[in-house]
Amino acid sequence: MKIEKELMRGAGPVAVLRILEGGERYGYELVKLLEHRSKGVLAMGQSTLYPMLYNLESKGLIDFRIDSTGARPRKYYRLTTKGKQQLAAQMRQWNALTLAMGKLGITGG
Amino acid sequence: MSEAMESNYLVKLMRTPVQELLRGRVTGTYPRAAQQRLMQAKLPASVAKLISRVVKRTRLWEREQIEVVDDLISHFLDGLEDGKTADEMILAFGDPDAASRLLRRAKVRLRPMLWHVWRATCVVAAIAIAGYVAMGIYFAVGRSNVAIDYVAEVNRPLQHIPLENRAWPIYEKAHLALVHPGSELYRRPDILDNGMDGKHWPEIAAWVQTQTKAAQLTREGSRKPLFGFDLPAAKTDIPVDPGRTLFSPTRPVGMESQILDAASHLAGLSDLVELLSFEIKYAAEQKQTETLHSDLQALFDIQRQLTQSDQLLPVPFAGPRYFWWALDSLDRALTLGPDLFTNEQLVRYAHRLADFRTASDLMTFRFHHLTMLDEVQHYYTDDGKGDGRITQLGFVSLCPSANYDYELSGTRAVVMRISRTVAVAGAMARVASRAELVRDAERINGMYEAALHVPTRQSKLKEIDAECKRLVNLPQYRLVGHPFILNHSDAVVYAERCLGHRDGLVVGIALELYRRDHGKCPATLTDLVPHYLPAVPADRVTGNDVKYRLVDGHPIVYSVGDDGLDDGGTLPAKDRYDHRPDAATWGIRKSSDNKGDWILYPSTFRTE
């Protein structure tokens, strides 16, 4: 199922933050996890993911470190303290929204 | 790309933002470091091409492009290692152009705050410059529309007046007959400065006797019912000496108000009036009663012709000025030779003087009003509804400080004009609109016009002056307001002083008639009422009766003057030119301070 752009714009960053809450990830890993965990619903092209990561970075919600221990350097993204607070707030809003939508018979909740 | 090509200057140039500029884009270069990283990654050609395309189009800084290249290389390598094919990865990547846009937007957000401030400043500056340029063009393209021929408007009432009823053609002949500019006498200002009261009076008197033709023609002209001055037809190809215009001597040639230009022609009349006033004194000395009364009659008639000439007076001062000449001549003649006047003649002169009730009988500001409208239509655009904006030529003409390059020619002139266009655009935007200017100028003009109808002490002249001053100091008038919003208080006060002089002369005539009947002067002026005077005239300063006293057996009539204090008929110590004034000059020249009394009669009175 393909999610409309507008919905994705709201859901995508929360989804990324949520994945990063579990630990630091590199770009390709994030794409895969998003696709896998959302069963393809939140699968996003790399053309969307990287600008989103830069935006989250500019807002100070994530930062990164370069790991040079492997065969080639890899950029790992991780949640900042501000990102954690933001994620918690976003999750509360999403829960409230889902609940409300459920009561309206739009979602399963 | 071969090394030979790499070293090619053109290729190098095309790797700079020039290439993008040629394509209509403002961009950074595609850094060589990014290309090298891509080559070292050994990605499939299709993937490398995609990354190149995406990164190039981000138009980011070099450092930012390298970061993006690194991220994308890493991403694609991860995907390929994960077993994805190049085509699958490219397909999953999405729209490259959208990616470029999104990447750029996101990366730009990551730039330092200082850069964002600088960019915002540049944007604001660019908008301001564009707005300023647009404003400059807006004002530069403005053209006036001269819709009304004010010269024709003013001349229209004269169209049906036959030539034989007009005085002006005869005055022109009289002026031509006057041996004036080339004469030895007129080359010596020391003679004329002291005029009739100086030691050179014998020379002047001798000259007067040689001017009988001019004097006779002037008297002939004065007997015509109308002044009949036609303003010259509009000139479009004759350069006019800018110095001849009244308000702005720096005005460029070809933009003069025709009315203002025409006004200078009337200046010659003053030479003729001066001749008659000299001749009156000479006639009084020589007991030539016929010449004396003919010339006095002529002076009063010229003054009447001027004030009735469609109220078109070249400057507001002209009406009272010619009145002053007539008054002064009558005053001098009466002082020099009271026996030259019969009782009937004195009564007739007194009645004639009494015709002038307020300053409005002597002057008007209608001429100034027409001039203002004429100038406005030359210097403003016309939207057809009474409004418009100042034109560039209008601004340069009215604002002397902007009128600096008319002497230049060639390239310098072009450069200066362009710079002027840029420089004055901002100033022009601040100048009052046509409707605003006309409204304020008419309001002030109307206030001064109203002040002419009441004695100055009741006219709130100071308030009008303050309002006038306030207006010309407003930003919209500071540069160009002066020719339009004029302070006329000097003219109003001058007319008032003439009327005061007239009051004194009327009392002087009544005193002479009383003296003839009683053999002596009265003890007080109330003794003259009602047989010789209907009432004692009011002092123009205080509103109380004018003052009177005898000095060495001779009567003087005086006002307490500007200070409102009775100094017993003592003139101020010095006038504004640092001269010891006499009564005839005191009213005109005023004192450098406001002390002393204003001697209304006789004009030859002096205090030693």
What this model shows, in words?
The complex is a heterodimer of chains A (109) and B (608). By secondary structure, chain A is mainly α. Chain A has helices at 5-21, 27-37, 46-58, 81-103, and strands at residues 62-67, 74-79. Chain A has four helices and two strands, in the order H-H-H-E-E-H. In chain A, strands 1-2 form a two-stranded antiparallel sheet. Chain A is globular, with a radius of gyration of 15 Å. The mean pLDDT of chain A is 87. Chain B is mainly alpha-helical and 608 residues long. Residues 1-6 and 234-255 of chain B have low confidence and may be disordered. Classes of the chains: A mainly alpha (109), B mainly alpha (608). Chains A and B meet through helix 2 and helix 3 of A and helix 6 and helix 8 of B.
Mean pLDDT of chain B: 82
Largest sheet of chain A: 2 strands, antiparallel
Tell me roughly what share of residues is in helical segments of chain B. Answer: 55-70%
The oligomeric state is heterodimer
User: Could you give the count of β-strands of chain A?
Assistant: 2
Q: What best-fitting shape of chain B do the alpha-carbon axes yield? A: elongated
Summing up helix and strand content along with how strands pair, one would put the structural category of chain A as mainly alpha
Number of helices of chain B: 27
SSE order of chain B, one letter for each helix or strand: HHHHHHHHHHHHHHHHHHHHHHHHHHEEHE
Write down the secondary-structure element order of chain A: HHHEEH
Shape type of chain A: globular
Query: Which residues of chain B form runs of ≥5 with pLDDT under 50?
Result: 1-6, 234-255
Beta-strand residue percentage of chain A: 5-15%
Which structural class do you get from the secondary structure elements of chain B?
Answer: mainly alpha
Tell me the Rg of chain A in angstroms. 15 Å
What is the first-to-last residue Cα distance of chain B? 110 Å
Major β-sheet profile of chain B: 3 strands, antiparallel
